[in-house]
Write a sequence for this structure.
């Protein structure tokens, strides 16, 4: 069971370049999320998708766009990368509802450096 | 806006000790409270999930409690081992069914000395 798979794992970008982080889950989850994790700041929500066809801004959406391509896939795009976007990015998913079915699952992370 | 705080930020204890990690939250209207473990260079692994109607959950040597009235949750680790060394994070599962994202604390970095 692959769970949540995100690619690439490592990427170095020059300021102004664009790139897309890919995320896919095989657990038939409704909701998917993109977080960034920075030292001293913890995990912050960038965007989320409560269900296929919907996306919403989280706490720190500026400089990012997302696409919920289908129920399995949720991509994060940096249109014009800035050094402030150097971070570790995590994709996550969960089945919304009651009980332990609400447990969230994370990918292994994508380390992005913008120089 | 929900705020989640974890104290202490770091903790180092000898192997074998029992220990408690603390998590506090400002808004008691939580859907659930989740505890995670994060190893260096890895993603987060869910340890325990406590529904808002529950008081505690147990898994092996781990026990998590939830007191909504005081805005606190604790993670109790019994008989700590070096393999327990990691960062532990708690998160509010969000309101209204949890479709929106979790709000995380900044974590407690735990070191178990052999």
């Amino acid at each position: 069971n692959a769970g949540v798979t995100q690619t690439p794992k490592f990427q170095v970008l020059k300021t102004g370049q664009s790139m897309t982080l890919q995320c896919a889950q095989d657990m038939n989850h409704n909701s998917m999320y993109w977080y960034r994790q920075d030292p001293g700041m913890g995990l912050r929500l960038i965007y989320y998708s409560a269900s296929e066809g919907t996306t919403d801004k989280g706490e720190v959406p500026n400089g990012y766009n997302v696409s919920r391509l289908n129920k399995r896939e949720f991509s994060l795009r940096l249109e014009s990368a800035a050094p402030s976007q150097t971070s570790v990015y995590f994709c996550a998913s969960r089945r919304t509802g009651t009980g332990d079915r609400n447990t969230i699952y994370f990918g292994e992370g994508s380390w992005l450096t913008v120089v | 806006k929900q705020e989640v705080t974890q104290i202490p930020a770091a903790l180092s204890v000898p192997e074998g000790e029992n220990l408690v990690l603390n998590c506090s939250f400002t808004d008691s209207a939580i859907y659930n409270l989740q505890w995670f473990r994060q190893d260096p260079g890895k993603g987060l692994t869910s340890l325990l999930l406590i529904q808002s109607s529950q008081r505690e959950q147990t898994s092996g040597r781990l026990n998590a409690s939830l007191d909504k009235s005081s805005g606190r949750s604790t993670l109790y680790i019994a008989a700590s081992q070096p393999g327990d060394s990691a960062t532990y994070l708690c998160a509010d599962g969000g309101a209204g069914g949890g479709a929106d994202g979790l709000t995380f604390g900044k974590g407690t970095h735990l070191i178990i000395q052999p």
Chain A has a mean pLDDT of 92. Chain A touches chain B through 31 residues (CB under 8 Å).
